[in-house]
Input
Amino acid sequence: MNPASCNLNPAPLPDWLDPTQWLPMTGSSDARAIQSAILSENPGEREMALMLSPAAGEFIELMAQRAQAITRRHFGQTIALYTPLYLSNFCNGGCLYCGIAGDRRAKRAVLDEAGLRREMGAIKAMHFEELVLLTGERMPEADVPYLRNCIAIAAEYIHNVNIEVFPMEEAEYRTLAEAGCTGVTLYQETYDQVVYEKMHRWGDKRDFFKRLDAPDRALRGGMRTVGIGALLGLADPCFDLLCVYRHAKYLLKNYWQAGLSISFPRIRPQLGGFSADHPVDEKMMAQFIFALRICLPEIPLVLSTREPGRVRDGMAGLGISKMSIASKTTVGGYSEGTEESTEQFEISDERNIPEFCDMLRAKGLEPVFKNWDATYREPAQYSR
Amino acid sequence: MSDILQIGGQEFGSRLFLGTGKFSSTKAMIESVKASGTELVTVALRRFNRDQAEDDLYGPLAELKNVRLMPNTSGAMNAKEAIRAAMLGRELSKSPIVKLEIHPNPHHLLPDAIETYEAAIELVKQGFIVLPYIPADPVLAKRLEDVGCAAVMPLGAAIGTGKGLSTAGMIKIIIRDANVPVIVDAGLRAPSEAACAMEMGCDAVLVNSAIAAAAHPAAMAAAFKTGVEAGRAARLAGLMPTSEVAVASSPLTSFLSNGDS
Output
């Protein structure tokens, strides 16, 4: 079903994003076409659609082999590591699926400077050199000036500071880049406007296109990297992943000096008891990751601690080139002095760093904590 | 017979240089460096971890005897960043050699000729021995030689692709025209390709992915050592000229007499 067709009055997706013409191929059962898509030297939308099809599940082993070879060629025998730090879980957002949405009876907290320094000390002691700072939607407790201060403080401790917060204006992104922020992660959640509207019941986040264009604004504002993704489980994953692929291609073409990464967040249990309308099981998720790896050989693909250890162990190096570890989804949580707050979602892989790194090494993968240097820290300038 | 390679006043007995990223462990990297017999390795400034964490590449390499370090500026998007990174790399490693690497696109990592040229001018002024990683462009190679680069490092193919000497035609022109050593950097997958580069007249090759991503990196490093040595020996021995056609055993011009009118 074409999601656009059931919306009462949807604004059309821009041409660079609209996957409608390839969507029927995600229902293909042509084994020969699927196999040649997997082995294609120069895959595009058609091959992506064929590899997303349920019928391609029969060829998951072939896809895994191809994905592993490509990952090894481009990223070597390494996995880049990072960790998230929740600065604030104050949120007035109406996301139906989120544990810290405005109508949840969540215990709210925000890190002050002393708290942040305590957390940064703890994170640095764990040897992390890449960090993602998170908040909820834009709130007085955690707006741009607050973020700017937090970034500047975090950048005193570690090399690579990124944010995963609300969409903002280009000038706001620029102040954050100037404070030392390297990259922005912002998931569209779903590219299906009908589902998007249903999932985001109120607030600024209801503006689908404002969110869609946020990576452009972030890059124009001087960010060096952007991370995109769809929250798997909300809508037809074939539609969403074709959009993720086309969104990635658009960003790569238009911001050719920018770094791009793609994540695969999957709906997990959290406060509020939301269950996915389009559940994606781990085999499907693996198939999708392989498809994106084959179609985008050079792009870092990220898997977080939302996923259980068994799946993460298996996927490391099999398409996935970057992972979080030792994550907390409460505000702070790394140092001893942090007050308790409600977590955004449950962590499935709760191993500590030595345990996780031992697993990686046993698989012949080197954990890399530092893969960037603060000497490069200044807003990027893109020629367009 | 001694066959010493000179780059910017530094002498190297081995013509195989190694990159140090992408290995499955520091141990595997060090074993490969040793097995390769290399005397020059490059290490990305972004992989220097001054907090002596386990993923630091610089510390373990600095302990090796007979191996000189060449910090590289990988991660720099432009000349300004590369110059800053080179300065910091020199300060930390005390090495005067820099592999100048500017790839504004972080995914395909292809070098930016314009920014590289600008940075090279400044780094030469600052007293560095500058080895720029460049597209296989014969004109750019001469321009970089003219501004004082100690060698040029044209790519065989894009980093990590293993597509070998895709740019062989251009590299041959660079070699023919160069007064500085020519080092093929990036793209090599097999020792035979390294041998081929040396037979063509390259002065050295730099290999990373092909060794790091091999099933047995140290064994592959040793194989590359052999490949480079074989190719160099063949070059020095003088390869038989190639010909598109067989040479006729009965001369076509025997009817021509010498000296007659």
Q: What stands out?
A: Chain B has nine helices and ten strands. The mean pLDDT of chain B is 91. The longest strand of chain B covers residues 129-134.
